[in-house]
Amino acid sequence: MKYFIFIFCVAVTIVVCSCVQSNNVEDIKLDYRMSEEFGLKEAQDIVREMVTFMDKEIELGKSGIARRDSDGFDEYYFSSREDEKRLEEYHRNYLTDETYTYLTQMYEISRYGRGMAQQVERDEKTIYGLRYSIDTQRDFRLKSSGNNELHIEVPFIYHVIISDTLPKEDYGEIVFTKYDDGKWRISKISHWYNDIVFYGLGKRMYLLDNYCKTKSDYEQFVERFGVSSSGDKIPMDILQISYNEILPNSDKLKFGEFINGEFPELFTKLTAYLAMEEIYARHGKPYEKGTFEYEYFNKATAWYKENSDFSENMLNDIEIYNISKLSDYIDGL
């Protein structure tokens, strides 16, 4: 009889300890084998666990270097191998490659890196990273469900202060999708500001810091350069062929003489627009302070110099031809 009482007490103790431990979000180990009961609560628990883990500022090893490879490059890892393994589990079980990258950039986490490139990457993310993070203190809301998808409205909050005129608390969206292996993974994370950084300007987001003061300003910028003529979202990255110029020879070469005789298909609407303005800017076209063009040519180039005597009469025939071709290209996007 005493033996059975002892076993019963041990069992109760284990249950109680398990319940107490599960109240700590950081220590929960979720394992959803994807039953039909997966819903808002389960999705919220997954996101809160991952975000709480990532938000604790995972550090690199001492001095940022774990070991030096035989080729002379430094290999960077987390100071705790358990942190690294846990992040791998999150990636494998709950995130696609794209949403993993989106989420780790939001919390400025780099898994691996080599030499200077790794440090530069970390510095750029710190300065121009995704500046809104998920707010785990407020409740998530279910937007819709069906067809093996769960759309959730998620609260966001300032991660890095940008401007007093932008909302300090905001909302974005997370989409869970059920995959063929039976697991529900985050297939989409979206917040309007972070999307401009992640899918568009990246480290050049600083060009909008003085140009855009309100959420409406950012939306108008996206409408101008991030939406096609048919209303679809398009990329907004800026491609520079040389360090300071998009098309360095557009004053000497016609587009038929550029890359393989064709206009570069990788050019976004924003890149093409700046390539067109670049032709004017070489002659010193003045730009009004506070405009995006002013920010770009004064901060992202080293050659621009304003000329108060600028006139379009300064353009040669090749430049006029290229402006026309660029304008047609933009209209066709």
Features:
333 residues; alpha+beta; Nuclear Transport Factor 2, Chain: A; 2 domains; two-stranded antiparallel sheet; 10 helices; 40% helix; elongated; disordered N terminus
SSE blueprint and pairings:
Layout: H1 2-22, H2 40-54, E1 67-68, E2 74-75, H3 81-94, H4 97-106, H5 115-128, E3 132-134, E4 141-146, E5 149-158, E6 169-178, E7 184-190, H6 192-201, H7 215-225, H8 269-281, H9 292-299, H10 317-332
Helix pairs in contact: 8-10
How do the SSEs run, as a string of H and E? HHEEHHHEEEEEHHHHH
Indicate the overall shape: elongated
Instruction: Tally the beta strands.
Output: 7
The mean pLDDT is 79
What is the CATH fold-level name of the largest domain?
A: Nuclear Transport Factor 2, Chain: A
Structure description:
This protein has helices at about 1-20, 40-55, 80-95, 95-105, 115-130, 190-200, 215-225, 270-280, 290-300, 315-330; strands spanning about 65-70, 75, 130-135, 140-145, 150-160, 170-180, 185-190. It has about 325 residues and is of the alpha+beta class. It has two domains: about 20-190, Nuclear Transport Factor 2, Chain: A (Roll), CATH 3.10.450; about 220-330, no CATH class. Strands 3, 4, 5, 6 and 7 form a five-stranded antiparallel β-sheet that branches. Strands 1-2 form a two-stranded antiparallel ribbon. The N and C termini lie far apart (about 80 Å). Mean pLDDT is about 80; it is low at about 1-30, about 60-65 and about 115-125.
